[in-house]
Amino acid sequence: MTSPKSLLQRLYADPVKTSMRIVHVSLADALTKGPPPTGNLAVPIFSHGSLVVELYTPVGLDPQKPHSRDEVYFVTRGKGFFLDGEQRHSVESGSFVFVPAGHTHRFEDFSSDFVVWVAFYGPEGGESAA
Known about the structure:
12% of the residues lie in helices and 34% in strands. The protein is mainly β and 130 residues long. The longest helix is centred in the N-terminal third of the chain and has 10 residues, at 4-13. The relative contact order is 0.20.
């Protein structure tokens, strides 16, 4: 049986080619995996099929541009505001945000300890409404 530490080492060594059935990554472990690779704002943590999970820890300003795939955010630590292109929404640890592909969005006025899990999934252009 493979140890949990060994599984995490494999995951972190190549997060895009992970083929395990069950994966657990703690926030503490994910926070040790930075900084983000060149050209990316977040640190890749896990990938399976169309799902890509990253850890996003913006500092100062959030320079995000609209993404080509649907995404969800889970605020893990801190607080701030989420601008959905039109309205600002207060977010804090425990908040969930869904952003359809192509929509303008960013976090604003967030605390210095602000951390979010972000998950991208589905096809380019987003999934069809059900």
